Amino acid sequence: METIVVGVDGSDCARKALARAASEAGLRGARLRIVCAWEVPPAVYAGGLAPAIDQETIDGFRENAETVVREAVADAERAEPGVPCQGETVEGQPAEVLVREAEDASLIVVGNRGRGGFTSLLLGSVSQQVVHHAACPVLVVRASEK
């Protein structure tokens, strides 16, 4: 059975990518692997002068990713009840995680914009890196048509 990987981060664009990935999985008779990568943002370590990050803060980033995945799995199961869904949270840089998680996939689905701050760009940094480095086809879903 083929696998479709979709990256989620809780953004509107990721929700649209999830809906499209679930639909594709239903059409293809594929399983859906829903992935949320998390990492402690580099700004937290600003200049090396910041105090050490406590375990509670690190756990907060991981728990947020777990919540995003749980909600995404529930949404996908409601949209396509017959599609087997698996949710994963993985620590690491999002594009690297998605490319690695999709090594055995037939398709990666990502939104064109995530939670990054440069909303005027056509593609976000994660979707752009995935497009350039994935070993399988990539479907980039726009949040909205203009």
Which stretches of 5+ consecutive residues score pLDDT under 50?
116-122
Average predicted local confidence, pLDDT: 87
Taken from the alpha-carbon principal axes, the silhouette is globular
Beta-strand fraction estimate: 15-25%
Radius of gyration: 15 Å
For this structure, the quaternary state is single chain
Q: What is the number of helical segments per DSSP (H or I, 4+ residues)?
A: 4
* Span between termini: 36 Å
Main sheet properties: 5 strands, parallel
Please state the structural category: alpha/beta
Q: Give me the side-by-side strand order of the main sheet.
A: 3-2-1-4-5
Overall strand count: 5
Listing every helix as H and every strand as E from the N terminus to the C terminus, the arrangement reads EHEHEHEHE
Q: Which percent range fits the helix content? A: 40-55%
How would you summarize this macromolecular structure in one to three sentences?
With 146 residues, the chain is α/β, with parallel strands linked by helices. It is 40% helix and 20% strand.
